[in-house]
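To: structure subgroup
Subject: Chain for Friday's discussion

All,

I'm putting the inputs and outputs inline so they're searchable in the archive.
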Amino acid sequence: MAENMTLEQNETKHENPSSLGMPDQEKVIAANALDAFTAGKYEESIKHLEHLQELNKDDYKIAMNKAIADFYKGGQSTTGTLKQTLMAMKNKVHTSVEDIDGLDDVENSLLYYNQAIIHYHMRQYSEAISIGEKLYQFLEPFGMLFAQAVCFLLVDLYLLTFQPEKALHLLAVLEKLTVQGGNKNSKGENANISKDGAQKAEFVAMIEAAKSKMHQYKVRAYIQMKSSKACKREIKSVMNTAGNAAPSLFLKSNFEYLRGNYRKAVKLLNSSNIAEHPGAIKTGECVRCMFWNNLGCIHFAMGKHNLGIFYFKKALQENDHTCAQLGDGSNGQSKKFTGIPMCALLANKRYELLYNCGIQLLHIGRPLAAFECLMEAVQVYHSNPRLWLRLAECCIAANKGNSEQESKGLPSKKGIVQSIVGQGYHRKIVLASQSTQNTIYSEGQSAAIPVASMEFAAICLRNGLLLLPEHQQQDAKTENGSKTSSQSGSTESGSENSDACSGKGQETDKFLSAAPSSPLRKQEVENLRCSILACSAYVALALGDNLMALNHAEKLLHQTKLSGSLKFLGHLYAAEALISMDRISDAIGHLNPDNVTDVSLGVAPSEQDQGLDKGDLDPVESSGKQTPLCYPSSVSSARAMMLFNLGSAYCVRSEYEKARKCLHQAASMVNTKEIPPEAILLGVYLELQNGNTQLALQIIKRNQLLPSTLSTPPPDTRKKPVQSFQPVQPIQMPSSFTQVQRK
């Protein structure tokens, strides 16, 4: 969930006139320049600096201060120019941040810090962290204000990159600095109480503001770690120090959301007075955008997906309105970082919101709309393997059609009888074709063109696999099946990590970045790998690439601690590929009903569809994804599915008696309405092979198997339970049924 980030590092980018050994005249001019800058008189400050530069041409710090004054004079909208100027100064002094190895190099720290600030606002977080961590090693010679600024910057960066343990460590250092600064100030003030009373009050106010900010940072860190008790304690401190301000209420709402108190979270959001917020130009944040987004995240977690997409669209409208005010249009200014105030560069959350919208639309059942949103988001978050899986799922859902719904036997004969032609003696029943294999989904165009086709799905899944670390490097701590968690983060979200972090800084290095979502833990990476392999096998079967489908299915089955649902699908997909390759005996080994012992989705609370990103909230679908209608709801129905497919395999091998036994045993294990049309057609084919035309017609008319129990023939052959045969064939196994049907 989003909270109001209060970043005031810009204030520390001022000049530092009190250099040692500076002549008195230069000190006076430098002091005048600083006073003018602080008062907002940038033109006057620049004139003082130009005069100072004439007296001391060799000091690059004067040129840096002049560049900063020019930057402020232009409304802080020439970020790219300032970055180039600072880079030129760094090259001029022949130094780099990696060369800082002692206190002698610390005098250039202000230059490095200014560079880190620019990297931060340009979302170049890794570069900013490398500079900040180097400066942090030499905090002692710095003044308290500058040391605080470095630490606050690093805390923000750690939270943005989901490293809450490091952030908490820095916050502990900040508390010590604040206490030490307060003690020194009180000792110094005892000597001049009457003279410095106003300064003391100002200093105390600054200390209190720093403490309030630290409490808010702690809450954000504990939210990322999902440490409920510690977070609750800090929430009380935030409410005591900051009151009912929007940032405090947003944080508390996020906390209640993570505890599952969704109604209370909505109530807290609605009680925040977002109209009082200064606006994106001053703070770099659009609170209205965060408000609507967070409401969307909460309703996503409640399973109210249509309401969720409504709120996300409102958030997108607010975001576009804010960007229009800032001049961040589609004219390419945002790429050049010109014309937009630096503090507002982080205000545009369009791609995070599109990511959230895409996941929400995918849940609603609008894959094409979801595909459009996620395709725009992937241009920015192209290194997120889970996002590529989501795109592939959009393609699969868009090309699946209504076959699954028809498979549930909606009207009695839908999906079996295509039409009836002729009359009387010449009356014929035309059976529907169930074949979907080897379908060309994108005709005459490159598979790399981003359209919702199965060919493009294969490319997306390949990208996702390539972005995952090598399997050998993992400790294989996989739990459960496909992982996906929905998170919302306004540059600081992180509730996808389900349980509290270990507290060891080394653990964070083992996470896999999945921006804009929370990073993936090792077990989540393995779960994601399993999901991608299962989807890859399905897509390969749909495209008729049976060898590749078999390869993916076998890799899936070799994964450690594979969830029951994906193991079931792995056997089915492997069997379908083998049957298509005329390796029936191998397929029968996969279709053994005893292979099915569990069909649970195996998704932990922290492993739901990850998508929503914006605001410290990471919606975790508390109720979990609903099981698809076509998916077996129990081990019994899954074994029946295996037996149906096993019967198909025997039928292809012309072992009709075994096929009939498998078919009727499977039919006795499930409800009549759950029998798929392909199984009915297989029963029709078997009776035709047996020369029993009337019984085949009865099967079609009644849309049922086991019609012999209604007629006079002895029911023994049908009621007799068949031993558990070997495996059965993939859920998406129309090919075998089709062959049987057409013979």
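Points worth raising on Friday:
The mean pLDDT is 76.
The longest strand covers residues 417-421.

D.
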